[in-house]
Amino acid sequence: MEKPDFERGPFGKLRMKAGELWQAYVGHSFVSQLAAGTLAEKCFRKFLTQDYLFLVHFSRGYALLAAKSTNIADIREALDGLKSIIEEMPLHVAYAKKWGISEQEMSRATEALETIAYTRYVLDVGYAGDRLDLMAALLPCVAGYAEVGLRLAGSKTTVFNGNPYSEWIKNYESEEYIKGVIAFIDSFNKLAEKYEGEVRFQRLSEIFNTATRLETEFWQMGLDA
What we know:
The chain has one domain: Heme oxygenase-like (Heme Oxygenase, Chain A, Up-down Bundle). Helix content is 77%, strand content 0%. It is an all-alpha fold. Helix 8 (131-153) crosses helix 11 (198-223). Catalyzes an amino-pyrimidine hydrolysis reaction at the C5' of the pyrimidine moiety of thiamine compounds, a reaction that is part of a thiamine salvage pathway.
């Protein structure tokens, strides 16, 4: 299976510049405890519930990405991303049901402040900026979960036998998911390469870093449950 090149192009440059911020995100204690199977179940249930609410607004981000696009290829690409999330929702619901959480319960849950801060930031970037800005805000989630999934799947320290979270881990290193991540990173790199200048890169870096911090706080929200 082809794997994303996390170090190539403008995305790789953003990821490298983020430095410790990025490593704090992909190496968060929430992730480590998932891999070891030691995460408290109440923490994971909180995360699953908030992740459902997150996906609702993340799908709005992809819809906005379509609206920010000016040609049919970009519109189709954004709608493919939106379709992937919509198709993922029943899987999320079915998985949450195994943990005793119904879709009705998730949909009626109060949004955590971390969920509100992250999702509304992404949408605000999209409304105020252009397609490239919005993609930079979406990237930490899209690429970060793939990096986490691949890293945990390939680590000798990850526990799979008897780990209640092994199914979740495997979902983010699946071939279908990884293909979508590769396409998104490639699209971002191609678009970003059309822009030159340190000022624009600094703006993208600020967006990327803020979204990365908000992703980290989302993990922490689950851990603090």
